[in-house]
Amino acid sequence: MTIEVRAPASSANLGPGFDCVGISFALYTTVRVKVQDALEIVPIGPDLQDTPRDESNIVYQAMLALSEAAGQQLPPVRLEIESGIPLARGLGSSAAALVAGMVAANELLDRPLDTQSLFDLASRLEGHPDNAGASLVGGAVVATFDGQGAKYLQFQLPENLRALLVVPQYALETSKARGILPDTYSRTDMVFQLSHAALLAAGLASGNLAVFKEAMRDRLHQPYRAALVPGLLELLEGAPEHGALGAALSGAGPSVLCFYEANSDVSALKAFLTGVLEQHGVTALLEELPLDNAGVQVSLHPEN
Ligand SMILES: Nc1ncnc2c1ncn2[C@@H]1O[C@H](COP(=O)(O)OP(=O)(O)OP(=O)(O)O)[C@@H](O)[C@H]1O
Ligand SMILES: N[C@@H](CCO)C(=O)O
């Protein structure tokens, strides 16, 4: 029997929802787990060739964390890992890897953890609930997290919402993009942040796309991370003037997320984004990615 688990990519923050808002996309990390005599970890594809083939692999670490939380022993397994999500681009590759590992181990051990416990564990492993939560339950997630447990609401993404992602060729590790943030903020900036995050959550939940342009503005991380992402502030300011509903740094970057309305013409937006990237000498892919409303998926293959 092989257990196959597919966890979607995600975009965290959406501007002001730093560490608390995430949405998921139809790009996937897939893991396949089969019990055998000795542990064997098999990363597949060029993107994963530098990832560990021993117990330190984060997918396996997530499996161990799940078995520990469940108070059960993990049997030795063959673990295959494939990532359709580019690493360290702000598309939640690490969260998808953790969620896929955790859910595969949960399945292997006959589902000792329910969805809330999986959400809590994923948030602890990732350190925040935005990417991990969206990857686990799909759609849009708004969450609080106290370091142990999360309170969250999941809702389906508005049907007429579409996403265009700017995915640069260069990588940016989340730890570096977090290290550049200040420790304190002014009250003025906090009021700005709270009001925009609240409007963003209300816009997502109600499906009112008209507020996104204003609601996706942020003062907590994007102005600081702009030092690590050439052209970021120009992209964010100009995208809504060229047809985007709103734009934000995706997670810790360097990808940029632009929302647009279904059936709208994005050629002017693409031309604008390409022009800014060229001015800054950045090579990037522009990808129209379907949103994912389902979250992690498990399939069982008894014949294998
Ligand atoms: N499928 C995987 N297998 C093993 N390691 C992985 C896998 N996916 C991601 N990683 C590890 O996670 C790192 C990337 O995590 P990081 O948090 O920096 O970026 P991200 O998750 O892609 O983006 P963000 O968190 O900003 O959305 C990789 O460099 C690699 O070490
Ligand atoms: N909320 C996180 C997402 C990246 O993991 C950040 O922006 O640092």
Automatic annotation (TrEMBL):
InterPro entries: GHMP_kinase_C_dom, GHMP_kinase_C_sf, GHMP_kinase_N_dom, GHMP_knse_ATP-bd_CS, Homoserine_kinase, Ribosomal_Su5_D2-typ_SF, Ribsml_uS5_D2-typ_fold_subgr. ATP binds at residues 86-96. Residues 201-273 form the GHMP kinase C-terminal domain. Its main location: cytoplasm. Pathway: Amino-acid biosynthesis; L-threonine biosynthesis; L-threonine from L-aspartate: step 4/5. Keywords: Amino-acid biosynthesis, ATP-binding, Cytoplasm, Kinase, Nucleotide-binding, Threonine biosynthesis, Transferase. It is found in: Cytoplasm. Residues 57-139 form the GHMP kinase N-terminal domain. It catalyses: L-homoserine + ATP = O-phospho-L-homoserine + ADP + H(+). Catalyzes the ATP-dependent phosphorylation of L-homoserine to L-homoserine phosphate. Belongs to the GHMP kinase family. Homoserine kinase subfamily. HAMAP family: Homoser_kinase (MF_00384). This is Homoserine kinase. It comes from Deinococcus roseus.
